[in-house]
Amino acid sequence: VHLRSPRSSLGGQRRHTLPASEFRCLSPEDAISVFEIEREAFISVSGDCPLHLDEIRHFLNLCPELSLGWFEEGRLVAFIIGSLWDQERLSQEALTLHKPRGTAVHIHVLAVHRTFRQQGKGSILMWRYLQYLRCLPFARRALLMCEDFLVPFYQKCGFEALGPCEVTVGELAFVEMQHPVRG
C-alpha cells in the first residue's frame, strides 16, 4: 500500500482549515479559555477577576450575542463579555444580572491574552464590538466601569466618563463610562 501525504496531493501547498483571524460571539464552550485569559490579565493588576468561571458561563448561556471573541488560527486572543442593563447607571446588581428588556449594554470585561498585548488589539476589538452593537435594534448605549488608569484608553475608544461608579469591589473604586450606540 502506498500512501501519499496531503502535501504532495495538493501540489506542495499547505491547506489551511482555520481562518487566520475571526471575530465571533462566544459560546459556553469558550468559557474556560475566556477565564484563563481574564484571570491572567486581572489578578496581577487588581487581585480579582471581574467575572469568575461560573459567571462567565452564566452570561455566555444567557446572552452570548452580547459577547465577542477574537480568534487567530482557532485560538482565543481577546474577548468582550456584555449583558443588558435597564437603569441609567450601574449598581452592584449589574455585576451579575442580565436584564433582557434593557437598552444599555453593560460591558463586564475586555481582556487580551498576554502575548497579544500592546498591539492595539483591545482598541480594534472594542471598535468592532461597538459597530456590532449598532446592528442590535435594542441597544442604545454601552456602559462600563474601569479603574482610573484605564479612563484614557476608553476615552480613545469614544467613551465619556460619567463620574464615580456606585459599584465597588473590595477596596477598588471605579469610574463609570458610556458610549452612545444610537440616538
UniProtKB/TrEMBL annotation:
EC main group? transferase
Source organism superkingdom: Eukaryota
Q: Where in the numbering of this chain does the N-acetyltransferase domain appear?
A: 21-182
Q: Is Translocase among the key words of this record?
A: no
Q: Name one GO molecular function term.
A: aralkylamine N-acetyltransferase activity
Q: Which GO terms of the cellular component aspect does the record hold? A: cytoplasm
Listed under catalytic activity are:
a 2-arylethylamine + acetyl-CoA = an N-acetyl-2-arylethylamine + CoA + H(+)
Q: Chief localization class?
A: cytoplasm
* Entries under PROSITE patterns matching the protein: GNAT
Keyword annotations for this protein, in alphabetical order, are:
Acyltransferase, Biological rhythms, Cytoplasm, Melatonin biosynthesis, Phosphoprotein, Transferase
Q: Where in the cell is it found?
A: Cytoplasm
Pathway stated in the Swiss-Prot or TrEMBL entry: Aromatic compound metabolism; melatonin biosynthesis; melatonin from serotonin: step 1/2
Q: Which InterPro entries does the annotation name?
A: Acyl_CoA_acyltransferase, GNAT_dom, SNAT-like
Q: What is its EC number?
A: 2.3.1.87
Q: Which family is annotated?
A: Belongs to the acetyltransferase family. AANAT subfamily.
Q: What is this protein called?
A: Serotonin N-acetyltransferase
Origin species:
Astur gentilis (Northern goshawk)
- Which lineage is the organism of this entry classified under, starting from the top rank? Eukaryota, Metazoa, Chordata, Craniata, Vertebrata
